[in-house]
């Protein structure tokens, strides 16, 4: 018996969590399907049939994945995952902070400031320490992208303090 | 319309100045995003979908196909010079190509992959032109029941047959189908799976999902595994191939192209399988005196063959997309949604109702191939310089454009929450080896499959046996079952024998 078969029998925690997530999504969509109101319009096949099918499949797949996870999981058999570098909490944390900053800032302060904050945080996540330079690059990139999209293509991407100062009142 | 007639018509339109311009722009952009790690054709075309509101359909599709072909050329540059394949089709190219680069033969490796891509792209495009009308003839005989079964077959092959595990592939597909169901049901007007959020009544936007999966999820996963260290780009050197390089590349190009195209045409549109097969084939067929170069100094056959297979398979994917409306790769699925935003229904009727568009597109593919080989051989130094863009700023920039692409659709923070939420799911999908492409295919093809199924059942007055009593439908169903169960039965049989 080799090492990989010897490890079987122990369930894999992360894989189990992923499997239960799939099961959860399946159950969630099953609940959403049940509450679809019955159609007053006649149709040979109602709006519920396909959602039921898909939900049932996901629940079934979730159960299947859970079984695999309890029997030792699948991640340990994938070479690419075994060779991959471990979790880098600093990089991932900074990146998620960048996404959050964009999400929170874009409505009150506008695209340019939100995008600049996101850019600096993401660049820092990937190891760039030139904060000031990134700040300048980000500001220029964001503002010219804003100009291009809003003035050039007519796609509104969120005006704010800076945009009003530079390009005048949106409208 | 026959192939020759069609091509004559196509070239007469494709050679106009504006269409040539779109092709050149597409080739340039496609090569650039193919070279850059972290951006692929699916993401680029998704971000460009808004141009469908202001550009003519012909122009937009020439641009998209230029990007699609160009990304294949660019991807091999990255695999060879950086040893980091940008997409699954160029993993094999990196095997021998990066070894050639390490031994100072990056130039000939780049040249053989560019010329191989040209040979295969041309063979593949000829294949589209001649096979397309034949498939259309057959497809016109199909009714909704057969169509539904074809889509089921497509679902099975892209999710369960390719990739590591049927269980995980089908889960990805299910997730995509679920996303496709969100919104108001077109037939009855009932809101489905909206969780009471009014923003979801219109459904989840395709661009949003593509950006979430390919930009946000990918960047998050890169950060998860991030290890600090300098990135090494190999020198290109001279791109001249010696006489022996030409001789050693020629048959691998032809064999690779012949192998790749059928794989692309079948609704199993993967590039992994043909590139891998081509690699093993060349390794077997190589002349004994070059055999030791495989895996050591890098054998040129191992770059020429798989690279040709990769491009021919990519061209083949366009056959089911244009003739049947069946996308078998993520990029094809996004192009399909571009057709929909023009109100064009891809499928067999496309060749008759939109003959101008289809043939101009095919002619443009020939032109794009010529442009690409020119862009990629003398200008390869330029692309190598693109690789020197520092990664922190590159990824930061990608995410800024991801925001623009999503927030620009509706200016709603809900969309950004969805974008990042699906992005985080995509990151975990990478971590747990769930394939991403079936999500996009399920989301775009799912609603079409549902429509076909409901049409078929309306015609049959609700009788579900229609799918097994119509002979063609039954045959396709049996193929799908065989594709799903076959490999498992075979493995079980091997285990019993052992």
UniProtKB/TrEMBL annotation, chain A:
The chain crosses the membrane at residues 16-37, 49-70, 91-124. Keywords: Membrane, Transmembrane, Transmembrane helix. Residues 17-156 form the DUF1468 domain. This is Tripartite tricarboxylate transporter TctB family protein. It comes from Falsiroseomonas tokyonensis.
TrEMBL record, chain B:
The chain crosses the membrane at residues 20-39, 46-72, 109-135, 147-167, 203-224, 250-270, 312-336, 357-383, 395-420, 432-449, 469-491. Keywords: Membrane, Transmembrane, Transmembrane helix. It comes from the Bacteria. Signal peptide: none annotated. InterPro entries: DUF112_TM (IPR002823). Residues 20-441 form the DUF112 domain. This is Tripartite tricarboxylate transporter permease. Pfam families: TctA.
